[in-house]
Design a protein that fits this description.
The complex is a heterodimer of chains A (260) and B (317). By secondary structure, chain A is mostly helical. Helices cover 76% and strands 0% of the residues of chain A. In chain A, helix 5 packs across helix 6, helix 5 runs antiparallel to helix 7 and helix 5 packs antiparallel against helix 9. Classes of the chains: A mainly alpha (260), B alpha/beta (317). Chain A: This is ABC transporter permease subunit.
Chain lengths: 260, 317
């Protein structure tokens, strides 16, 4: 057990001592909270011009989290760089001569990344909520309004799990280029509403970032709306947990089987 | 070189070297990648208190063997043990085995000191050791520089610092002289000898026979993944160095006949000169004079260890 704790402390130190990991975390916060403010301000001025049915479907809580979905690109970069740079720098050789039991090394690494992502996400999720609602002014809601706390907590969880998912993918790919090259464009497209396109919605709505949209909203659109999804926030959480578990377990299997 | 050379002897050693009986045992070790054989049924033992050179041409399987000893690569067959145990079972392995691998194995964006700090933390080694090994390896002035700005030689020194971090009784050094300047090579050679004199097991790979002959007490020679020799360095030198006489003359064919007539076997060097192991220079000079032959050179030579090594490993092909 002490060996595992020592490995965890080593991974936490690794995380703090490269600029790339530190900056991606800072960027996650700045993008999420900053964009919540900007989107909130823009919606505040646009609210009066909205059609009555659009006003009825207006989800003030979700306004806080559009920016967070962009911030997820940075948290994914964090996860990929933290794990993938082990391979691109060759550092994994030093890591495995220091901690030769691969399960202990991998567990410590994923846990260090997950704990850091969780801490960051908790601060970021609430900061984004309050920034967005403050910017909405009279149209904003408090944390006590229906679904607001649930949506904010699930936003924190979603941000955390996206980081963990990215770590698993980087461990499977044993590098940074491929996971970043695939996930960042996909995330960016998704944030533009890939899951709303009718033909691909059936599949795309279950992608790990797309379920976030469902987890973070408090108004459930009706079947005719483009934002309609066939499941609710808790099912979304379940889907995301499955994605994350698959990536993390897959990463472990690759590490265990392959030569370093 | 930044930071200058630090004499390893000048450093305080505040505790005795632990456990001098550590040995590396390699038993019937094999590694195949599909059809390609990297290491084939390799067995040898590395003992403490001396420098054991692990020699072979590039691609002979030295790095693969070292990586299997360290549990980084999985053997196809056989096993490698340190102190009777596979590497992966050693608790806090940096305190028992130090490894310098061919790649730098450090993140370019991290400061040298931080690289050593996380290694220390992973094996519960006191953090002051990071500063100590940076001083030992002459890197104290670049401790706060990021690794990506390091020269090849500085990277090797950082790798060595990492290997020495846990004050281990066993050291595995993969091509430690690569990238070092002549001053650094001398320093590294002295350091390896010093570590062995302290009773440590020092296992060092190289493709340079001449360098190993100066450094190693014992040699394990491989080529194409197979063991060719496992012997003391002195015995290897005695067995493989060759004394011969080199003769240059404008009339090589007549000289050849004269020598053959005297029962001396002659060969031809690539540059056309004659070579023989069958006679002293004096006897050849006398024979030439007796037959009125002009000679431009008659010199007694000894083939270099490098040649012996090439010949030995070349035969394995």
């Amino acid at each position: 057990m002490s060996a595992a704790r020592a490995a965890l402390r080593a991974e936490l130190l690794k995380l703090r001592t490269t600029r790339s990991t530190v900056w991606t975390l800072v960027l996650t916060f700045v993008l999420s909270a900053g964009l919540a403010l900007l989107v909130g301000l823009s919606m505040r001025s646009g609210f009066d011009r909205m059609a009555p049915d659009a006003r009825a479907a207006f989800d003030p809580v979700l306004i806080s989290f559009y920016g967070l979905m962009i911030g997820e690109i940075a948290v994914v970069a964090f996860g990929v760089l933290f794990v993938g740079s082990e391979y691109t720098s060759g550092m994994v050789l030093a890591s495995l001569t220091a901690v030769p039991r691969r399960g202990v090394f991998y567990g410590a690494k994923v846990l260090a990344g997950a704990l850091t992502a969780a801490g960051l996400s908790l601060v970021t999720g609430f900061a984004a909520f309050f920034a967005g609602q403050a910017a909405l002014g009279p149209h904003g809601v408090s944390l006590g309004s229906a679904g607001a706390l649930r949506a904010t907590l699930l936003a924190c969880v979603h941000l955390t799990l996206m980081g963990v998912f990215a770590m698993g993918v980087a461990a499977i790919a044993r590098g940074t280029a491929l996971p970043l090259g695939i996930m960042i464009p996909l995330l960016f497209l998704d944030s533009q509403g890939l899951g709303n396109v009718p033909g691909i919605r059936t599949v795309a709505q279950y992608l790990p970032d797309q379920v976030g949209f469902v987890m973070m909203r408090t108004v459930r659109p009706d079947r005719s709306s483009v934002g309609y999804r066939g499941f609710g926030p808790w099912t979304g959480l379940g889907v995301l947990l499955l994605w994350t578990a698959a990536a993390v377990v897959g990463g472990y299997l690759v590490l265990r089987r392959r030569d370093a | 070189m930044v930071g200058g050379i630090v004499d390893f002897r000048g450093l305080p050693r505040d505790r005795p070297v632990p456990n001098v009986n550590r040995v590396i045992e390699v038993r019937n070790l094999s590694k195949r990648y599909g059809e390609t054989v990297a290491v084939e049924d390799l067995s040898f033992t590395v003992r403490p208190g001396r420098v054991t050179g692990f020699l072979g041409p590039n691609g002979a399987g030295k790095s693969t063997t070292m990586r299997m000893i360290l549990g980084l690569d999985r053997p196809t067959g056989g096993r490698a043990l340190i102190d009777g145990e596979p590497f992966a079972r050693l608790g806090e392995p940096l305190r028992r085995v130090g490894a310098l691998l061919e790649t730098t194995a450090a993140h370019g964006g991290r400061r040298a000191r931080d690289h050593l700090r996380w290694l220390a933390r992973s094996n519960r080694i006191p953090e002051r050791r990071a500063a100590e090994v940076l001083r030992m390896t002459g890197l104290e002035n670049v401790a706060r520089r990021r690794v990506k700005g390091f020269s090849l030689g500085m990277g090797r020194r950082l790798g060595l610092a990492a290997a020495l971090l846990g004050d281990p009784a066993v050291l595995l050094l993969d091509e430690p002289l690569n990238g070092l300047d002549p001053q650094g090579i001398l320093w590294m050679r002295n350091l390896m000898r010093e570590l062995a004199a302290e009773g440590r097991t020092v296992f060092v790979s190289s493709h340079l026979m001449g360098e190993m002959a100066l450094t190693a007490d014992h040699l394990v020679v491989i080529a194409r993944g197979r063991l060719l020799a496992d012997t003391t360095a002195a015995a290897f030198v005695a067995a493989h160095s060759r004394a011969y006489v080199r003769i240059r003359t404008p009339e090589p064919e007549r000289m050849r006949d004269v020598l053959a007539g005297a029962g001396i076997a002659v060969g031809t060097a690539p540059d056309g000169a004659l070579e023989t192991e069958g006679a002293e220079p004096a006897r050849i000079g006398e024979l030439a004079a007796a037959h009125g032959l002009v000679v431009h050179e008659v010199s007694a030579l000894e083939s270099s260890l490098e040649e012996a090594f090439m010949r030995l490993t070349g035969e394995a092909r």
